[in-house]
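Here we describe the complex-level prediction in full. Unlike the single-chain runs in Section 2.1, the two entities below were treated as one system.
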Amino acid sequence: MANKGKIVPVPVLRRMPAYLSFVKTLQKQGEKYVSSTRIAEYMGIDATQVTKDLSHTSISGKTRVGYEVDSFVEVLEDFLGFNKVNNAFLVGAGSLGCALLQDEGLRNFGLNILKAFDVDPAKVGTRVNDVEILHLDRLQGMPAKYNVAIGVITVPAECAQEVADLMVGWGIKAIWNFTPARLKVPGNIAVQNTTIYTNLAILFNKLHSSE
Amino acid sequence: MANKGKIVPVPVLRRMPAYLSFVKTLQKQGEKYVSSTRIAEYMGIDATQVTKDLSHTSISGKTRVGYEVDSFVEVLEDFLGFNKVNNAFLVGAGSLGCALLQDEGLRNFGLNILKAFDVDPAKVGTRVNDVEILHLDRLQGMPAKYNVAIGVITVPAECAQEVADLMVGWGIKAIWNFTPARLKVPGNIAVQNTTIYTNLAILFNKLHSSE
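The structure predicted for the assembly as a whole is:
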């Protein structure tokens, strides 16, 4: 990892994929250099913020011409972990779980879901997008066997803590929690909460308050 | 809408679905009352924060017993807009777009994707989870005809601005942007950016910095 095990502030990590996306678009258009000012204009933020954010990485610009587009893309993808394959297990092959199994985008951004787990007999033994669905009882020993550090939780919220406990017990080091439940895990376990439905509440509020 | 068109701070809206999830779990367990202290302990925050957040809603607790669970769930779901059907169009029936079309959870949280649009001849005319995929050219006039205010963007990032412009031109009032692109839209248009891959970057950073 280019970030050398250093914690990067979350607001910086939230902006970086937008920088990457913008510069990749320029790359497709055949552009060779981009200035921090141009990135800042695209983002609607100050250019000093852009240079400060990028100082976390090994990206460096040249006076007058700016950042070299190809190396910007390569270094930033590497820094964000999108170039590496991070294997994961997913627990909860319901509607959202199966949706994630079918999203090829995750693989492009470094997440490879190796196997999925569920307790529903109708699902166990089937495959979604070529990923095998196993009974949750079989999670035992699997993270170590397959060298998997990441667990994705897409079960109903009331089962999320139980699944998190199982994952931690079997060696998962980082949990991507798609449920609105707040998980209690040991301090050395990384948790990232992503409740896309929360974003809906924010969108509805913006929409209805502007009506 | 119970929130009566008032803008609610985003951090409050981010916590509320977790409150709702917790109280719904208690409801399933047959509990009748919940105190702000208990919600606060679950969340790992201060009880005064919980009461302050809930003061945005019409939820009121009783001294000693706390909030009545059934009415808490009903009022909060209504407040967050999850009880109402909000029709939407989705543009970009690729991997992520089709994943969203297959996620029944969105409907449970108030978002009903009526139709999807794409430019790929192989996709146009097909259906995903019973949602028809139309050519993007047909978006014209559709938001007004179907009274649709919300547009979901799941196209490649470099096409996102173009799609946003079309949506705004045809009467969309709120955009749920799943791409890392930053959209430029008129001030009266609500935009919510949800880049799930950004959450991956944050998760990878937490994981690798703790290794």
